[in-house]
Amino acid sequence: MAASQHARFALVLATAVCTSAAVAKLPPPSEEAKAKAAEAAAKTAWSGKVEAYQLCRSQDTVAAAYFADMKKAGKDAKQPVATPACADPGPFVYAPLAAAPAAAASGPAVAVAKP
Fold first, then answer.
1. Exposed e or buried b for every residue in 63-102, given b needs 16+ CB within 10 A?
2. Cα–Cα distance for residue pair 54/106, rounded to 1 Å
3. How many Å is the Cα radius of gyration of the chain?
C-alpha cells in the first residue's frame, strides 16, 4: 500500500513540474488581449445587472399577482415591504478608460517639498 502512495505522489509531482514549466514559458498577454479581457469582464458585469433586473421584475409581478389574489379572495394581506425600484441597466456599452493612457503619457507626478 505504501508503494502505491509513493507512485501516486511521484505522478502528482511530475505533473506539477511539467505544468509549472509550461506556464512559465507563456508570453505576457498583448495589449489587444488585455483589452478583450477587460471588455469581457465589463460584459459579464453588465449581464449580472441584467439578470438582477429581470429577477426584480419577475418578483414584482409575482408579488402583484399574490396581492391581487388575496384581495379578490377577500382576505387581508399584510402590506408589502417597501423595496427600491428595479434598475434597468440599459444596453451594453463598453467605454474603456481613456484617461489612464493620457495620465501615463504625461509622466509621473513629482512632489516638491519645501526646505
1. eeeeeeeeeeeeeeeeeeeeeeeeeeeeeeeeeeeeeeee
2. 44
3. 28
Three cell numbers at 24? 512559465
First to last CA, the chain: 74
* Cα separation, 81 vs 60, whole angstroms: 11
Which pLDDT belongs to residue 15?
Answer: 77
Alpha helices (runs of H) in 25-77, residue ranges in sequence order: 31-72
Neighbours of 35 (CB within 10 A): 13
Asked if residue 88 lies in contact with residue 53, where contact means CB atoms within 8 angstroms, the answer is yes
pLDDT in tens, 37-92: 999 999 999 999 999 999 999 999 999 999 999 999 999 888 888 889 999 999 99
Whole-number Cα distances in Å, 98 to 28, 35, 42, 90: 22, 12, 15, 22
For the question of whether the overall pTM of this predicted structure is more than 0.70, the answer is no
